[in-house]
Amino acid sequence: MTTVVTANCQKCRFTDCVTVCPVACFHGDEEMLYIDNNVCIDCGACVPVCPVHAIFEEADLPEELHIWIEINAERAPGLPSVTEKEDPLPGAEARKAELGY
Amino acid sequence: MSALGSEQHPLRVAIVGSGPSGFYAGEALIRSGRTVQVDMFERLPAPFGLVRHGVAPDHAKLKEPIRVYDGIARNPQFRFFGNVTVGRDVSVEALRAAYHAVILCSGAETDRRLGIPGEDLSGSHTATEFVGWYNGHPDYRDRSFDLSREVAVIIGQGNVAIDVCRILAKTVDELKHTDIAEHALDALAESRIREIHLVGRRGPAQAKFTNKEFRELGELVDCDPVVEPADVVLGPESLAELNERSGTVAKKNLEILQGFASRPPRGCRRRVFLRFLLSPVELKGTGRLESVVFERNRLEGPAGQQVARGTGQRLELACDLLFRSIGYKGIAMPGLPFDARQGVFPTRDGRILDDAGAVIPGLYASGWIKRGPTGIIGTNRADSVATVGSLLADLPQLDTGPKPGADALSGLLAAGDRRVVSYADWLVIDRAEVERGAAKGKPREKFTRIGEMLALLGVPAP
Predict the structure, then answer these.
(1) What is the DSSP code (8-state) at residue B108?
(2) In this complex, which of B62, B249, B385 lies closest to A41 when CB atoms are compared?
(3) pLDDT tens digits, residue range B130-168?
(4) Identity of the residue in B64, B211, B245 whose CB atom sits nearest the CB atom of A41
């Protein structure tokens, strides 16, 4: 089991997720966040707080998003840790509306 | 004089309670960029609150935040004072005099009552007692639960209810390599329970399980989930709730429930009955619990505001053991205002309020004692960051004179030969637990008596 950040985070990066992570497993580049699944405890605290439904536990991950398991695993460990709320990317609200949330 | 929180004038904060909200408050203070001294007070010799004594033993991963707390505790700006009960050994007033600020993170230690006849019959227990017992909490070490009969009922459908259910439903082999307390494993090994009823007053759309915990009930080695087909058919209001943004978890729960309802039973030794729209109205028995009487409910009201209303129709279920898990409340602290109905300190943005609704300077709260028993471990991190944010914003208004911190309390702390347990002391206990667990293939075997823990630190038995 793992928990992953998926495509909806791109162009948004709201970072609400990091505020409820009990083990600081989020890492980020300029585009989005990723979960380090070696650290994540699959508690699911981040899933409901994402304004754009970008985060899934593996059991609930739609088939077309399965590629994100590998992307998170590859990207997260090499990127800086994000543990505090940051401003979303410019245009995040518009993107959120576009995604229907 | 230099500013409070500078190297010359450190900010001294006392944190009461060593669970997640306490540690995340400590972390937020240490990371604030100010010079701080954080002193954490805990009534037990062992830290970590509900991560140690609440999280179920078979959920090892959910205990990993302890690694984070260990990192915080090893920070030179942090000190642990275990085996000290604030409100008894040290008053909140004494803490306020010794520190610039006090953050209460004492959690929700007691259960809500059903308020029905027979509630205190032998065989009727709180979920808290059972959870504390199987997790080796010293307060519950000597409780006993009669597992020699066949039917157990759990009132409530939150994650604690599901934990209790799962521990009752699992085989010993599924538990013996966890950190479950030895006395509990021995008792569960003799359990003759065959039926567990997990009962909610509302419908499946309103159950508070998280998906993962709910799904797990279908993955037990020797236990079948049982669902009445009628219970998975929802009314239009409940269906509307599931399609709301807030209904994502409930929608998935319904899918899981439908999965349980449609799969053929495997003929397991135990069965978990998921039951809905039932409120207990009486526990019956002569001398001990023999049955529970439920009233059947229906949901009334518009989507999102549906309430369970009794229909008058009653049904009686023979049972031998009952646990109530319908919510938790904090306990009042001598000298502090308390909202007894909610079981929390009255607060605004984490600042504790007096009876007139005015902020009491320097007193803060976080976690379940602030917001009530909602959310999971990580929820407390955001909560504590918010409370510490209020505290830091208040720095100019706090009593900014120098404060002595725990040094001024040493007389109080050592009164009556009490052994104050430092973090280094705790690590001695921790190592001993891990060592004796390793012999049995367990991550640890907890010490379940305070005297045993103190004996490891050289304190003679009384």
Answers:
(1) -
(2) B62
(3) 999 999 999 999 999 999 999 999 999 998 999 999 999
(4) B64
